[in-house]
Design brief:
By secondary structure, this protein is an alpha+beta fold. It has 4 helices and 9 strands, in the order ααββαβββββββα. A 5-stranded antiparallel sheet has the order 3-4-5-8-9. It has a two-stranded antiparallel ribbon with strand order 1-2. Helix 1 packs across helix 3. It is elongated.
Length: 173
């Protein structure tokens, strides 16, 4: 039997790879807009994004022999990997908190992995059979900031129900 922790721990590396793709995409977009030196980024609406997600994964190269040349921000692969793993671990903790809130007092829980960003949780609540298809989606805001969504489909005795009806069910029983 798989536990929620075991399923989620297996997803860290895959999720980190997804973050690496998103960070590279964001970096490339910023380079396209501001150049390799990111000139003008602090005066733009992308300043916070740059400081919190791109600058931590880059090396800044200043050539003292050429002080008038643009100083490039170049992705450092080691920094990118470590930063992505940290983002993935933080996201997994958020995901776990959402899942625990959803499952409430379900008994006889079983988890089954589907792919790197989704799995099933099945169990029993009183006389009901519960199945939750849990997903995590990595998105980028219009400002380029990474964020997660945690949608779920919930089935009670094989019938799909809304999350609000599910909450009422587990609250009233």
């Amino acid at each position: 039997m798989n536990t929620i922790d075991a399923i989620l721990n297996k997803k860290v590396i895959d999720l980190a790879k997804e973050y690496q793709k998103q960070l590279r995409y964001t970096y490339e977009g910023l380079v396209e807009s501001f150049g390799i030196s990111m000139k003008g980024i602090y005066a733009s609406g992308y300043s916070e994004l740059f400081k919190t997600t791109i600058k931590p994964i880059c090396d800044y190269s200043k050539d003292v022999l050429k002080p008038n040349d643009p100083n490039p921000y170049i992705i450092n692969e080691d920094k990118l990997e470590k930063f992505s793993i940290k983002l993935a671990q933080d996201s997994i903790l958020q995901w776990k908190a959402k899942i625990i809130k959803k499952i409430g007092n379900i008994k006889n829980i079983h988890c089954e992995n589907i792919n790197s960003t989704s799995f099933y949780i099945t169990g029993e609540f009183n006389e009901y059979y519960i199945k939750i298809e849990q997903q995590m989606i990595v998105n980028i805001s219009s400002k380029g900031k990474l964020f997660n969504q945690f949608p779920a489909r919930i089935y009670v005795d094989g019938k799909k129900i809304s999350e609000s009806k599910y909450k009422q069910l587990i609250k009233t029983e």
